[in-house]
UniProtKB/TrEMBL annotation:
UniProt KW Transferase keyword: yes
One GO-annotated biological process of the protein: UDP-N-acetylglucosamine metabolic process
GO annotation, cellular component aspect: cytosol
Keyword flag Transferase: yes
Gene Ontology MF term list: carbohydrate derivative binding; glutamine-fructose-6-phosphate transaminase (isomerizing) activity
Superkingdom of origin: Bacteria
Enzyme class: transferase
Protein name per the record: Glutamine--fructose-6-phosphate aminotransferase [isomerizing]
Subunit relationships: Homodimer.
Location within or outside the cell: Cytoplasm
The organism of origin for this protein: Paenibacillus sedimenti
Phylogenetic placement of the source organism: Bacteria, Bacillati, Bacillota, Bacilli, Bacillales
UniProt catalytic activity: D-fructose 6-phosphate + L-glutamine = D-glucosamine 6-phosphate + L-glutamate
């Protein structure tokens, strides 16, 4: 059942091209329009939305952080993202015309369910982005957008996270259709690039993953490292850091690249690995100056950059390249080598990658 892979995690990482295709299937019409039958929110209701709240835990929360940027960029509706365990107790301001989106692979996470119930009580409309049809989250939501990643066995989420990103891309374009925030040509261009993602992931998996394994060899002996990034790279850094922590048991921290010098830079010393995500072209120059900052303190920098941005080789010690796509879609590609980095690091350290200590796949208690 592991299809020849040594673990479910590795199998699930390789299952992502299929998961992306299934999540898009039947939802793109004539290569130009998004249709989402599970969403009953009308065009008028979408136009009336004043704000969106997203609630989730762990990896799903990190997907929601990407989702916030995607939805805000494509629709200009303000989005707030909360950890479900915080949202349920913080008396969130839910006004009329608030949409709450609960993101959950299992659809059974106790805090996420409680957060959505809280939101409903205050009159919000609730949408679920979940991987399990018939789950509690799906049953209690007004609208459902299913990720079709298939069953995820490994405790560390990989294909469910990346399929949640695909769901947000579909939702963003879908809402933009009602709001008329995208011109037709741009919309077609985005959909074309979206449809190209599965093949791009496939190519990455066939490509330079040996380079990622070598980086894992280098970091496996350290006790502490940083991930840094700006914008979507910061959201992705949080996910990459969680993935590495949960299965390798290395301590790592994700930092907004511009925030490091406000305190944590003090932890960077000779040889400290810093993994710099630099896939957002508009922020590239800023991230490069942050890379120089940590280099000056002796950090060993591994950069993740877009193909063609070879100038990073002058600043970073090593560079892993990610294929080009529309900037909002980059996390759906860049996440793949980061998942593999966690996987290889954990394997090198002799850990059970599918069943990390202290963790359960589904957290149905508070
Ligand atoms: C980490 C991981 C967890 C889950 C979290 C929420 O790899 O899998 O952080 O993302 O427990 O679970 P769901 O998405 O089922 O609500």
């Amino acid at each position: 059942e592991k299809n020849g892979f040594d673990s479910f995690m590795l199998k699930e990482i390789h299952d992502q091209p299929r998961a992306y295709e299934d999540t898009m299937r039947g939802r793109i019409e004539a290569r130009s329009t998004i249709v989402l039958p599970g969403i009953e929110l009308s065009e008028v209701q979408i136009r009336g939305l004043k704000q969106i709240h997203m609630v989730a835990c762990g990896t799903a929360y990190h997907a929601a952080l990407v989702g916030k940027t995607v939805i805000e960029r494509l629709t200009r509706i303000p989005v707030e993202v909360d950890l479900a365990s915080e949202y349920r107790y913080r008396m969130p301001v839910i006004r009329k015309n608030t949409l709450v989106i609960a993101v959950s692979q299992s659809g059974e996470t106790a805090d996420t369910l409680a957060a959505m119930r809280e939101a409903k009580q205050w009159g919000a409309r609730v949408m679920a982005i979940t991987n399990v049809i018939g789950s509690s989250v799906a049953r209690e939501a007004d609208d459902c957008l299913f990720t079709l990643a298939g069953p995820e066995i490994a405790v560390a989420s990989t294909k469910a996270y990346s399929s949640q990103l695909i769901a947000f891309y579909l939702l963003g374009i879908f809402m933009a259709q009602s709001l008329e925030t995208l011109d037709q040509a741009t919309q077609i261009e985005l959909i074309t690039m979206l449809e190209r993602l599965p093949a791009q992931v496939e190519d990455m998996l066939k490509g330079n993953m040996e380079a990622v394994r070598q980086i894992a060899e280098q970091i496996a002996g350290h006790n502490h490292l940083f991930f840094i990034g700006r914008g979507l790279d910061y959201s992705l850094a949080m996910e990459a850091s969680l993935k590495l922590k949960e299965i390798s048991y290395l301590h790592s921290e994700a930092y907004a690249a511009g925030e490091l010098k406000h305190g944590s830079l003090a932890l960077v010393e000779d040889g400290t690995p810093v993994i710099a995500l630099a896939t957002q072209e508009l922020l590239l120059e800023k991230t490069v100056s942050n890379i120089k900052e940590v280099k000056a303190r002796g950090a060993y920098v591994i950069a993740f950059a877009l193909e063609g941005n070879t100038e990073l080789e002058k600043t970073a010690d090593q560079v892993i390249y990610v294929p080009r796509t529309f900037s909002l879609f980059t996390p759906a590609l860049a996440v793949v080598p980061l998942q593999l980095l966690a996987y290889y690091t954990a394997s090198i350290r002799g850990n059970d990658v599918d069943k990390p200590r202290n963790l359960a796949k589904s957290v149905t208690v508070e």
